[in-house]
Amino acid sequence: MPEVDTRDSVDRSKRFQAELPADAAKRDPAWRLLEQYAGIPADEVEAHLHRVRDQAWQIFPYGCIGRWRFLDLYIATLPQYGELIARTQRGAVLLDCACCFGQALRQLAVDGAPAQNLVGLDLRREFVDLGYELFRDRGTFAARFVVGDMLDSGDARVGVLDGAVDVVHAASFFHLFGWADQVAIGARMVRFFRKGITDAVVLGRQIGSAVEPLDPEEHEKRGLGRYHHNQKSMQRLWDEIGRRTGTAWAVEAELATALEEDSNGEVAERTTIRFVVRQRAS
User: What's this protein's family per the entry (predicted)?
Assistant: First the structure.
């Protein structure tokens, strides 16, 4: 998870929600994971979550931490979820970019993905360590974690993953950056895939755009920073990534818009985009 929030003009207080989310659909899967996998007694879950979340917030104030979005184990609701588990069971390696606490990896493992075929990548070692604390599985969780910066092309820590990955999960990641950095990140992801692979896939969810995004050059000219996508612009992004890497990609994506209340009680529409990017013949 990159340290980019200082570039964001959003009031920090609006990114922090003191109380745990009330939506049972979002809470229940996380509670089950913490109780059944981590072995945390039901009456201790809330205090445990507050303790870990507040430590993470002091490390860096990401909105997904302040607003408890790391508790939304949406990955298990994806139509491709069964495919992800089946592929890892056949030996495929799944990489979770900007994995934060590694919550998606734990859910995958509980549902049958071999932990030794799961890898998490994040910028901050502190978040990986807090993941072990959150799930109380240091020494028992066999997934591998790598700490490094995907925007640093010379970061040898990240380079250990080159040519070793079959599937990339990237949630709440691309949307933190402008167009040029998103292209660079996508090109870096392409280097992760095994040489000769024909079924590489990148999938995830992030903030989307309910209106037609500006042309990238115009967006940059206006100094707007983060670039949010609809289906058309997401395909354009991966066309550019493909051009730079000598690969080709087909994007499937869908937008969803819902009302969301922030910590100050203000309600606004929030648009998200779910995407699946599959390799196709060049």
Answer: Belongs to the class I-like SAM-binding methyltransferase superfamily.
Q: Which two tokens stand for residue 138?
A: 């240091």
Q: What is the pLDDT of residues 180-219, one digit of tens each?
A: 999 999 999 999 999 999 999 999 999 999 999 999 999 9
Burial 233-267 (b: 16+ CB within 10 A, else e): bbbbbbebbbeebebebebebeeeeeeeebeeeee
Please name which of 144, 142, 27, 14 lies closest in space to residue 67, comparing C-alpha atoms.
14
| Residue 122 φ/ψ region, left for φ over 0, alpha for ψ in the -120 to 50 degree band, beta for the rest | beta
pTM, rounded to two decimals:
0.92
Question: Within 10 A of 212 (CB to CB), how many other CB atoms are there?
Answer: 9
Q: What pLDDT digit, counting tens, does each position of 136-152 carry?
A: 999 999 999 999 999 99
Residue 145: strand, helix, or coil: strand
**In this structure, what token pair is assigned to residue 199?**
């079924």
* Burial of residue 213, with CB atoms counted within 10 A of its CB: 0-12 exposed, 13-18 middle, 19 or more buried: buried
- Where does the chain have alpha helices with state H? 24-32, 45-59, 63-66, 81-89, 103-110, 125-135, 156-159, 179-192, 216-221, 231-245
The third-level CATH classification (topology) of the domain covering 5-280 is Rossmann fold (3.40.50)
Q: Tell me the C-alpha distance between 181 and 54, whole Å.
A: 29
CB burial of 59-95 (b: ≥16 within 10 Å; e: otherwise) equals ebbbbbbbbbbbbbbbbbebebbebbbebbeeebbbb
The neighbouring-strand residues paired with 12 are: none
Q: How far apart are CA 271 and CA 255, in angstroms?
A: 7
Contact at 8 Å (CB) between 272 and 255? yes
Burial classification of residue 161, based on how many CB atoms lie within 10 Å of its CB (0-12 exposed, 13-18 middle, 19 or more buried): buried
